[in-house]
Automatic annotation (TrEMBL), chains A, B:
Active site: H41 (proton donor)
Pathway annotation: Cofactor biosynthesis; (R)-pantothenate biosynthesis; (R)-pantothenate from (R)-pantoate and beta-alanine: step 1/1
The organism's place on the tree of life at top rank: Bacteria
Protein name: Pantothenate synthetase
Residues binding (R)-pantoate, per UniProt: Q65, Q157
Localization per record: Cytoplasm
Keyword Cytoplasm: yes
Enzyme class of the recorded protein, top EC level: ligase
Function (record text): Catalyzes the condensation of pantoate with beta-alanine in an ATP-dependent reaction via a pantoyl-adenylate intermediate.
Miscellaneous remark of the record: The reaction proceeds by a bi uni uni bi ping pong mechanism.
GO biological process: pantothenate biosynthetic process
Length: 283, 283
């Protein structure tokens, strides 16, 4: 538990804070977020506190990872609440930069992670992972962490970041945390706040479809198409839903496979009303 | 003058060497090169030795910045000679990585600097600046320099790097060194070794065209088209030459201009026989 927490808005001051901590020999653990914390975020922060001497959490609703018709403007925000929650799990510093300074006029440099950005959410949200990789690299250069923690709920994002770190020789270790769920199984997401009470019920179909897939796999069904068909059936029978994609394939290359050996990734995105939810599991 | 010089091939060992120097409080000045040193390279190294406590020079003929029909295979190489030359100007460490480890199987992450990579060499060598920006970012992450020195001869490259450093909040200062020339004015380049003695004479047309442009500008001609026409005339009258481009425009945005206020960039690329040479000046 940490009684004091620093909130830094300036990029230069953040660099200075981190530089100062590094000079003192402190190991910095970093959790990049878009804010509006739920238990999933707090679990990442708690994990970070075991990995480093100082925990930095960034809150930045990154415009460059939203498509033109996506929910950038309505994305939920509550800085005061976030600060209190972060404080409650011992976070030392919140970095809360302004978009004007993260992307000043004339900004023109982008990170493209080619292979693992394709398929899944990459195909459905063009430019999304370019925006994610670019902002994460910027945040790494500003916060200068020794280790950074990402949630496995955004599985493809995790793979994009891991690949970027490896390819660009970034001096930071990436750690990941399993999906944190509500009691009934729904994966925690800031976007769950968009759901009406009926939609909240329907939203459980993602988890249910993943559980069904696991059960089928356990009973000996190893054919991806067959598993996918059963998942589709389950979701189609749920009101207010529309499948965006169901992916079954290799968890490293993110290429689809026909068979489902142990370690296979199943990931899906489903529209529930006007809210797009994602979830995944490893068989 | 430095009597000992370290040559490091391993990426991990280079990171360790730099980390060690940083921990000791030493400031690292870095000169990324493709080797086959001439006086231009040595001038960058000498500049670096005034900017840092330790000078690191990388020698890496970066395959990703060469096009499929370019001179990657015949690019001149002589490590032994390079080590001796670097030693003579007090370089502390040469980083000489292997392409297999810089770009291992599955490599897929690229840096795109959009605006300033367009036009000039960017249009003539598609993918060139993507390769340059990517390898320079990798080298920065491995060598961890406080400051890096680039030559102004590759003016567009300098602008791409400056833009990348600014946009990605990289913790490194970029310094540049003026074009270093042979006695008669030919800009130093490793590619000058490709020239036959007749071509060597023709190669002077780049410098002559730039001098002509300056003279015209001084006499009051401020129209870019007019200046370009006179430069073209001069080069066309030189045997064995073919103009790749002549650019007259803004030295920051690298956009062409009609007028030539003071500070205007004139840059050109000319084929002399089978060798493509570049040069530039600021009015």
């Amino acid at each position: 538990m940490n009684s004091s927490i620093v909130v830094i808005e300036s990029i230069d001051k953040m660099i200075e804070w981190s530089q100062n901590e590094r000079t003192k020999g402190n190991k910095i653990a970093f959790v990049p977020t878009m804010g509006y914390f739920h238990r999933g975020h707090l679990a990442l922060m708690e994990m970070a506190s075991h990995l480093g001497d100082k925990v930095v959490v960034s809150i930045f609703v990154n415009p460059t990872q939203f498509g033109p018709n996506e929910d950038l403007d309505k994305y939920p925000r509550d800085l005061k609440r976030d600060i209190d929650l972060a404080k409650s799990v011992g976070v030392d510093c919140i970095f809360f930069p302004n978009s004007k300074y993260m992307y000043p006029e004339g900004f023109q440099t982008w990170i493209e992670v080619e292979g693992v950005s394709k398929g899944l959410c990459g195909d459905k949200r063009p430019g999304h992972f370019r925006g994610v990789a670019t902002v994460v690299l910027k945040l790494f250069n500003i916060v200068q962490p020794h280790v950074a923690v990402f949630g496995q709920k955004d599985f493809q994002q995790l793979k994009v970041i891991e690949r970027m770190v490896q390819d660009l020789n970034l001096p930071v270790k990436i750690k990941s945390h399993p999906v944190v769920r509500e009691k009934d199984g729904l994966a925690m997401s800031s976007r769950n706040t968009y759901l009406s009470s009926d939609e909240r019920k329907s939203a459980l179909c993602l988890f249910k479809a993943l559980e069904l897939a696991k059960k089928l796999h356990q009973t000996g069904i190893k054919n991806a198409k067959e598993i996918k068909k059963e998942m589709e059936k389950l979701i189609h029978s749920t009101p207010n839903t529309r499948i965006d994609y169901i992916f079954i394939g290799d968890s490293t290359t993110l290429k689809e496979t026909e068979d489902c050996p142990s370690g296979t990734l199943i990931a899906l995105a489903v529209w529930v009303g006007n809210t797009r939810l994602i979830d995944n599991t490893i068989l």
